[in-house]
Amino acid sequence: MKKQEIKKLSKDEILKNIVKLKKDLFNFRFQKMNSQVTNPAKIGETKKTIARLKTILQGKGNA
User: What is the pTM of this model?
Assistant: First the structure.
């Protein structure tokens, strides 16, 4: 997700996306341990997206 896309989301949508991405990250870790990862770069991308969502969420909480 791009920063501009994230800014358009509401707080509830951001929270739902964070939960979904954390589940995905959990599954990626298991796939990595079992050598079943098809795209290893997806792990880092997911972590960055979670961080972006949390950053935007904090900004919306203060506004």
Answer: 0.85
We report the CATH number of the domain holding residue 22 as 1.10.287.310
Contact 25, 46 (CB under 8 A): yes
Number of domains in the chain: 1
Half-sphere exposure for 41 (CA within 13 Å, toward CB): 0
Q: Where are the alpha helices (DSSP H) in the chain?
A: 3-7, 11-33, 41-62
pLDDT in tens, 3-62: 888 889 999 999 999 999 999 999 999 998 898 888 889 999 999 999 999 999 998 877
